[in-house]
Write a structure and sequence with these properties.
Layout lengths: L2 E12 L6 E3 L2 E3 L1 E11 L4 E6 L3 H16 L9 H8 L8 H22 L3 H4 L7 E8 L2 E2 L6 H9 L4 E5 L4 H15 L4 E5 L6 H10 L5 E5 L7 H10 L4 E3 L5 H10 L5 E2 L8 H14 L3 E2 L7 H13 L14 E5 L4 H4 L13 E2 L12 H6 L4
Parallel strand pairs: 6-8, 6-14, 8-9, 9-10, 10-11, 11-12, 12-13
Antiparallel strand pairs: 1-4, 2-3, 2-7, 4-5, 6-15
Helix pairs in contact: 1-3, 3-10, 5-6, 7-8, 9-10
The structure holds magnesium ion.
Keywords: Magnesium, Metal-binding
GO molecular function: hydro-lyase activity; magnesium ion binding
Cofactor: Mg(2+)
């Protein structure tokens, strides 16, 4: 079953004036991404998402990959990474190449699922998983003067039982935000905090100490992603699970995080880390070393659907049911029509349970008219 056509589609949506959202690292005023659409001779279509600067990534897919993809059998998907390193000897491992590769890889797995009539999580060898526990990724740093209680109250109304909030802009602000969230969520909800790499190790230690009464499930990206020695220092300074990975790429970077035992949870993004093929390698390394894996999601609905399929395939091993550890799945609650509008049926995280689509491939139907509305090439 040959691929006869590849299209890279850059998408962008500008948020309303003054309504940018972000983290301690800064504010975003647009949401953008690149979709990948593959077609086979029998008319099957596979969708993927490369989560990187939209037009640049689309051009890179055209220039570097398109000629190789046309004529390729989607079942040869795992040769793509090899190609990227062999032919892209001097640059194949770089971030944007890996993002482009991710989009193509996910689209190929979507096709494979449609050809064999199975959802991707089953093909990846996962058990028949039907649901995940979504957590609200929320309480962003906002361009407008938002009451921090408001997004948490909304998360509760939507039925979330867990939330992750942005901190990292100063010790007092950290305490205020976490106290607000914990008071609204109650004692039983899981609460995580995300520094987005904005502190130095000793600042992380001080903030974690200040937050000790609030029962934080994990701290995320306490120091910048490139700062491996900083991660080791944080690990030695604090007694709390550490998560990272949304800004890391491919098996080699994750291998270092896992081998060095710098983190307790790795968070590959399916649109960046190298797609399903690479995420599976990362999951194998992580679970072998008893490191948890929870995908990062800030994508369009295509990357979101890919992350759901991947999360549903991740083994609980080595833990048994005696340790109740729901597979907490990130669900971004900031405004993003690329997440909410691109599907015929949008993915609904409300009610505290996220159903894993059981239809073939990613289990989604893309609304191509909606895709055209956000297209920017
Ligand atoms: Mg994060």
């Amino acid at each position: 079953m040959e691929i006869i056509e590849i299209e890279a589609i850059p998408l962008s949506h500008s948020l309303d004036e003054g309504r940018g959202v972000g983290s301690a690292r800064g504010i975003h005023t647009t949401r953008s991404t690149t979709l990948v659409k593959l077609k086979t001779a029998d008319g099957s279509v596979g969708w993927g998402e490369a989560f990187a600067p939209a037009r640049t990534t689309a051009t890179l897919i055209e220039e570097l990959f398109a000629d190789k993809i046309v004529g390729m059998d989607p079942f040869a998907v795992e040769s793509l990474a090899e190609e990227s390193y062999m032919e892209g000897y001097h640059f194949g491992g770089s971030a944007i190449v890996q993002c482009a590769l991710s989009g193509i890889d996910v689209a190929m797995w979507d096709l494979i699922g449609k050809i064999v009539n199975r959802p991707v999580h089953q093909i990846l060898g996962g058990k028949k998983t039907t649901s995940l526990t979504p957590y609200a990724s929320t309480m962003y740093v906002t361009e407008w003067d938002q009451d921090p209680a408001e997004p948490i109250e909304r998360a509760i109304e939507e039925g979330f039982t867990a939330a992750k909030i942005k901190i990292g802009r100063g010790f007092e602000d950290d305490i205020e935000r976490v106290r607000t969230a914990r008071e609204i969520l109650g004692d039983n909800a899981s609460l995580m905090v995300d520094f987005n790499g904005n502190y130095r190790p000793k600042q992380v230690a001080r903030s974690v100490e200040n937050l000790s009464e609030f029962d934080i499930a994990w701290i995320e990206e306490p120091v910048p992603p490139e700062n491996h020695s900083g991660y080791r220092q944080v690990r030695d300074l604090v007694d709390i699970p550490i998560a990272t990975g949304e800004a890391h790429y491919n098996r080699f970077e994750f291998k270092q995080l896992i081998d060095d035992r710098t983190v307790d949870i790795v968070q590959p993004n399916l649109g960046r880390c190298g797609g399903f093929s690479e995420a599976r390698r990362i999951a194998d390394m992580a679970t072998t070393e008893n490191v948890a894996i929870r995908p990062h999601v800030w994508n369009s609905s295509v990357g979101l659907a890919a992350a759901i399929q991947f999360a549903a395939s991740v083994p609980k091993y080595p833990h048994a049911d005696y340790i109740p550890e729901p597979l907490l799945f990130e669900f971004d609650r900031s405004k993003n029509p690329l997440r909410d509008d691109l599907m015929i049926d949008s993915i609904d995280p409300t009610g505290g349970v996220l159903e894993v689509p059981q239809d073939p491939g990613l289990g989604i139907s893309v609304d191509e008219d909606a895709v055209e509305r956000y297209r920017i090439d």
